[in-house]
């Protein structure tokens, strides 16, 4: 058995079995509470810069396949589980996790107490860490972990965004759904690390989607019926170029729909503030309350920052959804402009589809504006 170690910045070291590729990776260590959907997590650009710990103890039993990609590559820095399945059993599977990790250069570790690790992160907050199967000296690994830059202030969008505008037929390289109906609305998606299922969801509702880099100027986006601000990694305050673009779009009274990082960027463009959550929300089972309908929805989430409620209300915004675990803002809209956003993932993949109605709301805003 080859050993691997996960060292946290506070000096805590977990020793387990190496899985996947050889090497050493560093990043912010977070935990995800989803029971399944690990391939979607692995390929979600929002996880750039993070080492992901799965709280569900058995990961990998259904392998990976050619359809459940949420981007063109694997983005996580490292992967942690209580036990990775060496046996794969699913008719859709094309490979096991060990083979998948080796192919994509992902360093992983299992056979550690993920309950203890999760509890530490919940009590202390997300911490930086180093995952390695080549360097096994505890003190050296802990020192490396302590030297990693904090997530606050980091612009990671520049590493995951598109290099040029692309029509959705060119951008979505793993399309699970085949035929699509007539396309009625022209939508620009600002790619801060967009998941494929956001684009799929828009296309299936009749949107002709073009994906733009995160630094696209407002004048390029104004010709569309609406703009969707995508999910993505890092600190929203550091993505100054996208915030500036959204400020210009707000002057044009354009329909805007923000998702996850896009929600935070919309809040900042409106004049609100954001802050770092203690350990973030990562999983496919987070309850939120719709403040308009008072209904409870179960949502898929992956974010470490949040929009501050008081500053939002001071600039004409209002809270539309709240997290029932900690009361954090999960959705907002402006009282006089056709813009709204949610902190969670209405496109799911993975996760429930309770919030898919939000795409319909975006369509209604565009139809009203025409």
Structural commentary:
The chain has 370 residues and is of the alpha/beta class. It is built from 12 helices and 19 strands. The mean pLDDT is 95.
Strand order of the biggest β-sheet: 10-12-11-13-14-19-18-17-15-16
Query: For the terminal residues, how far apart are their CA atoms?
Result: 63 Å
How much helical structure, as a percent, in the residues? 25-40%
Mean pLDDT: 95
The name of the CATH architecture of the largest domain is 3-Layer(aba) Sandwich
Shape estimate: globular
- The radius of gyration is 20 Å
CATH topology call of the largest domain: Rossmann fold
Number of separate domains: 2
What secondary-structure arrangement, pairings included, does this model have?
Elements lengths: L2 E6 L4 E8 L3 E9 L5 H5 L7 E5 L3 E2 L18 E3 L2 E2 L12 H8 L2 E4 L3 H11 L2 E6 L5 H10 L9 H4 L5 E2 H4 L13 E7 L4 H9 L2 E7 L4 H4 L4 E4 L10 H12 L4 E4 L1 H10 L3 E17 L5 E12 L1 H5 L3 E7 L5 E6 L4 E4 L14 H13 L1
Parallel strand pairs: 3-4, 4-6, 5-7, 6-8, 11-12, 11-13, 13-14, 14-19
Antiparallel strand pairs: 1-2, 1-9, 2-8, 3-9, 10-12, 15-16, 15-17, 17-18, 18-19
Helix pairs in contact: 9-10
């Amino acid at each position: 058995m080859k050993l691997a170690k996960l060292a946290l910045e506070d000096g805590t070291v977990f020793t387990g079995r190496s899985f996947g590729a050889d090497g050493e990776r560093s990043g912010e260590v977070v935990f995800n509470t989803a029971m399944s959907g690990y391939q979607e997590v692995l390929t979600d650009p929002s996880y750039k810069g993070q080492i992901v710990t799965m709280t569900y103890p058995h990961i990998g039993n259904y392998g990976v396949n050619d359809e459940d990609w949420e981007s063109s590559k694997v983005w996580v820095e490292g992967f942690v589980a209580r036990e990775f399945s060496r046996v794969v059993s699913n008719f859709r599977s094309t490979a096991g996790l060990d083979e998948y990790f080796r192919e994509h250069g992902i360093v992983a570790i299992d056979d550690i107490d993920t309950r203890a690790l999760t509890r530490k992160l919940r009590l202390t907050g997300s911490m930086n860490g180093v995952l390695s199967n080549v360097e096994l000296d505890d003190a050296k690994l802990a020192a490396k972990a302590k030297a990693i830059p904090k997530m606050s202030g980091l612009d990671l969008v520049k590493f995951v965004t598109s290099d040029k505008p692309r029509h959705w037929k060119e951008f979505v390289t793993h399309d699970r759904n085949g035929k699509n109906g007539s396309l009625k609305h022209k939508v620009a998606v600002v790619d801060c690390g967009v998941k494929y299922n956001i684009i799929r969801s828009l296309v299936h509702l009749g949107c002709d989607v073009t994906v733009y880099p995160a630094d696209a100027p407002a004048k390029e986006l104004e010709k569309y019926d609406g703009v969707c601000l995508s999910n993505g990694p890092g600190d929203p305050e550091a993505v100054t170029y996208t915030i500036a673009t959204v400020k210009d779009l707000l002057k044009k009274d354009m329909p805007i729909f923000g998702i996850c990082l896009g929600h935070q960027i919309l809040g900042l463009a409106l004049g609100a503030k954001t802050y770092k959550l203690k350990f973030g929300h990562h999983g496919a089972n987070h309850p939120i309350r719709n403040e308009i309908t008072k209904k409870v929805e179960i949502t898929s989430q992956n974010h470490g920052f949040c929009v501050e409620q008081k500053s939002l209300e001071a600039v004409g915004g209002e809270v539309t959804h709240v997290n029932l675990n900690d009361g954090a803002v999960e959705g907002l809209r402006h009282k006089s402009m056709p813009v709204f956003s949610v902190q969670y993932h209405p496109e799911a993949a993975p996760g429930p589809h309770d919030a898919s109605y939000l795409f319909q709301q975006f369509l209604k805003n565009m139809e009203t504006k025409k």
